[in-house]
Amino acid sequence: MDFRLNDEQEMLRRMVADFADQILAPEVMKRDREGTFPHAEIAHAGELGLLGMIVPEEWGGAGLDTVSYAVALMEIARVCPSSAVTLSVSNSVCAYPIWRYGNDEQKERYLRPLATGKIIGGFCLTEAQAGSDATNQKTRAVRQGDHYVLNGTKVWVTNAHVGKVFIVMAVTDPQAARGGISAFIVTPDMPGFSFSAKEEKMGLRASCTSSVVLDDCLVPVANLLGHEGDGMRIPLNALDGGRIGIAAQAVGIAVGAHEEAVKYALERTAFGKPIAQHQAIAFQIADCATEIDAARLLTLRAASRRDEDHDRAGPEAAMAKLYASEMCNRVAYKAVQIHGGYGYSRDYAVERFYRDARVTSLYEGTSEVQRIVISRAVLAG
After folding, report:
1. Of 354, 42, 363, 35, nearest in space to 199 by CA
2. Quick one: fold of 233-380?
3. pTM for this structure?
4. How far is it, in rounded angstroms, from Cα 285 to Cα 261?
5. Per-residue pLDDT, 310
6. How far apart are CA 246 and CA 224, in angstroms?
7. Does domain 7-120 have CATH number 3.40.630.30?
8. Chain-wide mean pLDDT for the chain?
9. pLDDT at residue number 320
10. What residue ranges do the domains of the chain occupy?
11. Closest by CA position to 334, among listed 296, 287, 297, 293
């Protein structure tokens, strides 16, 4: 089996790496300190086709395979994990479900602007009492004439305040199995839609996160995505792609932290030689390099599996997300440790990578949820 990227994938990787190094890197520390969203940089990413990577060309996208998508996110996250999650969410769990389940009118109105980078999008599933238990939705959608009236609050919404279109899950039939959940395409200009204050987060501080409040929000019937009751099928399928995206982000964070650790270990001297020449440090570097490569291969395998069958990549996506996210936290920890006291300073990039790493085992399904998905697949035979 050939684990190398093909020529097109390698060309994309280099292009995205150049974008990350030249466009994202210069202000990355400042954005983290100030918690500012990289509007100009994300617009530039849109011009490069990075907001429509997995959307077919007929709808304005780049028409890339999932492997290419994962490779691109790894390079973005290596420099700016906040930008990586912005791109991952807009691609995986907003644009993708509209392409997969939307009708032509919805695709023309919402998917094309997303794919061409004119706007970004978000995904509204999680609620205060519906995190890992995603079917415990309290948001309701009641049809009244040619509109649905939505009421409820969604929390931890990535791309809040900056997104222009959101996939919102709501209960349309409380008596139905799994809550009778349906999906809607909702925009912030619809009556009754508002954002709460931005969350003050530990990491990913240059990404926008807040709650979405739906107070008698009027959504046209034409904005129902798929059919009533399709709801959980849509987010679960989209989340497979989302988990691959977060696995790729985790790999990128680990690579970024590891590169900083290696550079520091070669420059810092102790007891008359670079600390990289001390076995205690060299072995940590070796372990991290091995874990990063293992996570990268798991992630690319999951991406390849999704390219083969969009409905059958769940276990592979869960394995990649589980391992990559936990690996990412271990590598970031060791990168700080190798830096010693300097790793605790905000003047060094490893401190930021350490904070950014923590969320990867929490969002897009916690590590515990990934283990549930994996164990069910294994036990089912």
Report:
1. 35
2. Butyryl-CoA Dehydrogenase, subunit A; domain 3 (1.20.140)
3. 0.96
4. 8
5. 86
6. 27
7. no
8. 96
9. 98
10. 7-120, 122-225, 233-380
11. 287
